[in-house]
Amino acid sequence: MAKRGATSGRAFTLIELLVVISVIALLISIVLPALGSARETSRRAKCMANLRSIGQGFAMYLSANKGMFPMVNPLHGSSSTPNDPSLLDLLSEYLDAEVPHREEPGNTNTPFVVSDPYKCPSDIAGIGGNAGEPTWKDTGSSYEFFPASFMLLGTLMAVRDPAFGVTKAYEADRNWPIAVDWGDFHPLRRGGIARNAVYYPDYRADWMMDISNVEAGKFINDMRKYGG
């Protein structure tokens, strides 16, 4: 009787299959963090571009207003009253961007509708202290106006002109942040503050600086001295 043709290749054994699965799992564990890191790097670059845009809008505002910082709340919220505008309202003249607004105008229970440059792509639920909704959805922006905190402090300390005092303190100290991420949106940073910022007076975007108590104390003293 004639012999049959060549036999088919042998099947994988169970041990060989387990080895292949283990190698694939190992490769996935190596590749996924790298992909996550690349995505976060891209998101951070977009965030810095947003902050640079806000910084440029702020620079144009200062040029049109004798270099005086506005006495406004942090970079959150939209129109309040004509006599008490938000920084978002003030910058709307200098940025080609839609001012963040409520999904249902006048209804503060509805989320904000926000577009660039006011939304950081890393500002998502569960990141940077956000247990629920992203910051931009709750407040109208992923960023905050850093000088406003010192203006509020100046008001509490009975400084006569907090806006003037803070403006002059910025001019004296230099290279302080103007707008910063609201939360630690960029967790892949090792050491330091996991936030971006745009700085006065050159409007560069970079990591948020770690301000020491000594620096903050000097700044507050300058604010009080110039603000009266």
Describe it:
- This protein is an alpha+beta fold.
- The protein has one domain (16-227).
- The chain has 6 helices and 6 strands; from the N terminus they run ααββαβααβββα.
- The chain has helices spanning 14-64, 87-91, 135-139, 146-156, 162-173, 213-227; strands at 101-102, 112-113, 143-145, 176-181, 196-200, 205-207.
- The strands form 2 sheets. Strands 3-4-5-6 form a 4-stranded antiparallel beta sheet. A two-stranded antiparallel sheet has the order 1-2.
- The longest helix has 51 residues, at 14-64.
- The radius of gyration is 26 Å and the shape is elongated.
- Mean pLDDT is 81; it is low at 78-83.
Helix and strand topology:
Elements: H1 14-64, H2 87-91, E1 101-102, E2 112-113, H3 135-139, E3 143-145, H4 146-156, H5 162-173, E4 176-181, E5 196-200, E6 205-207, H6 213-227
Antiparallel strand pairs: 1-2, 3-4, 4-5, 5-6
Helix pairs in contact: 4-5, 5-6
